């Protein structure tokens, strides 16, 4: 895993990996620009599993970190053009999690057919697949949510912790 990440990250400075305890690895960056850039790339996947990257806080115990909260990129489709404004995007994003960033333009700064959000989500909760909007005249609009760079998850219960093949219907 260390070798793969080192080759994928293209860092300017040296990167060191230190295993603290089972499942927790401290990554030391030799360059602050590399650290900032890679923390913004979350979620990071390794072998279709989430690799939570959180900034180090001095004197904080590893149990105090919220490894279950991850920023995910998602696209909301079927969003009416007349509702494409910052406040509506914030409201829709808050229904999913904590909004980190909003984008509804492509690289040429032209409008696109969806709103793209970066939302902080709890990975232990089911993924939302749609959002319902109610227009000013009372009409309900169903907007589909598509996630970017999503790890393996269960299509039946929408949890990230397992895949559909490993789903135990008896527990349900």
Helices and strands in order:
Blueprint lengths: L1 H8 L5 E7 L2 E6 L2 H8 L4 E3 L2 E3 L17 E9 L8 H11 L1 E8 L5 E12 L7 E5 L5 E9 L24
The end-to-end span amounts to: 34 Å
Q: What is the number of helical segments per DSSP (H or I, 4+ residues)?
A: 3
Number of strands: 9
- What is the helix content? 10-25%
CA-based shape: globular
Poorly predicted sequence stretches spanning 5 or more consecutive residues: none
Find the structural class using helix and strand composition. alpha+beta
Strand order of the largest sheet: 6-7-5-9-8
Mean pLDDT: 81
Q: The biggest beta sheet, please?
A: 5 strands, antiparallel
Order of helices and strands: HEEHEEEHEEEE
Rg of Cα set: 19 Å
What is the percentage of strand-forming residues? 35-45%
Pfam families: zf-CCHC_4
InterPro entries: At4g02000-like, Zn_knuckle_CX2CX4HX4C
Domain Zinc knuckle CX2CX4HX4C: 121-166
Protein name: Zinc knuckle CX2CX4HX4C domain-containing protein
Structure in words:
It is globular and about 55 Å long. The chain has helices at about 1-10, 30-40, 85-95; strands spanning about 15-20, 25-30, 45, 50, 70-75, 100-105, 110-120, 130-135, 140-150. Strand 6 (about 100-105) and strand 7 (about 110-120) form a beta hairpin. The strands form 3 sheets. It has a 5-stranded antiparallel β-sheet with strand order 6-7-5-9-8, covered by helices on one side. Strands 1-2 form a two-stranded antiparallel sheet. Strands 3-4 form a two-stranded antiparallel ribbon. The protein is of the alpha+beta class and about 170 residues long. It starts with a helix and ends in a 24-residue tail after the last strand. The protein is built from 3 helices and 9 strands; from the N terminus they run αββαβββαββββ. The chain is about 15% helix and about 35% strand.
């Amino acid at each position: 895993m260390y070798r793969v990440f080192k080759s994928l990250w293209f860092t300017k400075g040296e990167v060191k990996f230190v295993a603290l305890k089972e499942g927790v690895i401290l990554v030391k960056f030799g360059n602050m620009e590399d650290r900032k850039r890679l923390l913004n790339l979350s979620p990071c996947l390794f072998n279709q599993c989430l690799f939570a990257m959180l900034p180090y806080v001095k004197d904080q115990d590893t149990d105090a970190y919220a490894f279950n909260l991850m920023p995910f990129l998602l696209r909301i489709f079927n969003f009416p053009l007349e509702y494409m404004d910052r406040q509506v995007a914030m409201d829709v994003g808050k229904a999913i999690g904590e909004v980190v960033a909003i984008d509804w333009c492509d690289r040429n700064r032209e409008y696109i057919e969806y709103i793209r959000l970066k939302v902080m989500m709890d990975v232990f909760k089911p993924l939302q697949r749609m959002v319902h909007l109610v227009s000013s005249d009372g009409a309900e609009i169903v907007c589909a949510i598509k996630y970017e760079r999503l790890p393996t998850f269960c299509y039946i219960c929408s949890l990230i912790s397992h895949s559909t093949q490993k789903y135990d219907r008896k527990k349900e």
